[in-house]
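Two folds, back to back.
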Amino acid sequence: MTNTIGAYKVNNKLPGEGEAYAARSSRGTACVVRRLEKPVDGDWHDAEKEIAAIAAIGHDSIRPFDDCFVHQGRLAIVLIDREGVSLDELLASTGSGQLDSSACWYVVHRVAAALNQAHLVTDANDDYLTVCHGYL
């Protein structure tokens, strides 16, 4: 594993699909750096649209966009890490791996509100930006 991606110091690889790393910016800000494979057709257009959508969302349950650059021929997207407890940590803290109904409703509300805001993002022409979640 590389120790840096661009100007970001990598702490560790994050679990899950794709290539994502917990990192720190040169300012010391905690962030997530995702490296994307180049699309088969070589066109980054869809990724650029999703990056624009993420940058425009501004919902406190969605990591804000910070930076984007090419690293070793792959697109690197940097999202600011949010303080707080992940869903995995929340489930582990219950002992049973299950949330009570009020916690479930809270999580559902936060996710629904974030998705709603994400799908209302428009471009400069007031056309809705399609967010297919394929890149981010």
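---
second:
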Amino acid sequence: MKQKAQIRAFKNELRNYNYYVSTAKKTKEIIDNYYYELSGVKANDPSRPPLHSLPDKERENRIREAINRQERYLKLTQAKIKYIDRVLDNISEPLNSTIVDIFLRGESLTAHSNNYNLSNVGLYKKINKAIERALNG
């Protein structure tokens, strides 16, 4: 992948970071609900077996397949989160917080360019160079 395309792809991933975090949280809840559904209703007396009808193997298999699908999706989402965190950790701190503010929180590029005494284009080039170095290192 060309360097510019790789930088552009990382910026898109960074913009989706909050979505990935919320999706991972929701997916964990869905998996927990599926496991709860598999466990059945428990009796008041813990020494007695669970109270439910005869085991429905087809339903149980559907639930287990859904759990596997959700777990694969969760692993993919967590891998994307770790990738973004790893790249951001390779960027020095003042520029790191600027990148997070601009791409993750959607703050104005102009306000941050004034802090660095740069034009918008100058700050954008500086951000691209920092991301490029972080991706390669």
